[in-house]
């Protein structure tokens, strides 16, 4: 289960008037590239203003760097944790730009899934990094777009076939296993 930092827990517990939690989404796919051929993820923040924030040190793209999240209206709810069901969420991005729609259209032609990472930042200090100790990454299972709206469903992929515990005990890593 995802954990949060002490600062974010304090904001949720005390609800101070001068602090706002900013929810962001980052969509990544190998076909999301700019004109120079560099990776160009879609980064959005549910706010009225763009957000310049620092990513975590182990982020898949631009690790530890300050990046821009574009202000876009979107709906997103964290998945429920029900027994026997893989977590699944619905994402609705209103006012999607032509760039977002273009990226999604290019991704549809490939079998690789779109990665979706959810992060929370505190508006008072976005350069401190996300306040999710481990940001939630899901994979878009289906998406559809109109001229101004993108609707997607994201889920954890193949959670049933993931090893548990996630550590694999092999003689290379644990030489004491060999007699």
TrEMBL record:
Superkingdom field: Bacteria
Protein name according to UniProt: DUF1833 family protein
């Amino acid at each position: 289960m995802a954990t949060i930092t002490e600062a974010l827990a304090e904001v949720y517990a005390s609800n101070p008037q001068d602090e706002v939690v900013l929810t962001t989404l980052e969509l990544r796919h190998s076909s999301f590239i700019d004109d120079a051929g560099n990776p160009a993820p879609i980064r959005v923040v549910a706010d009225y203003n763009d957000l310049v924030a620092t990513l975590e040190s182990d982020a898949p793209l631009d690790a530890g760097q300050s990046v821009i999240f574009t202000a876009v209206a979107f709906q997103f709810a964290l998945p429920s944790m029900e027994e026997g069901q893989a977590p699944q969420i619905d994402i609705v991005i209103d006012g999607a730009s032509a760039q977002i729609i273009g990226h999604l259209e290019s991704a549809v032609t490939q079998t690789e899934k779109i990665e979706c990472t959810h992060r929370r930042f505190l508006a008072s200090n976005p350069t401190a990094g996300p306040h999710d100790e481990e940001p939630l990454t899901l994979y878009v299972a289906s998406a559809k777009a109109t001229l101004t709206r993108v609707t997607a469903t994201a889920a954890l992929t193949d959670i049933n076939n993931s090893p548990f515990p996630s550590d694999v005990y092999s003689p290379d890593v644990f030489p004491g296993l060999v007699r």
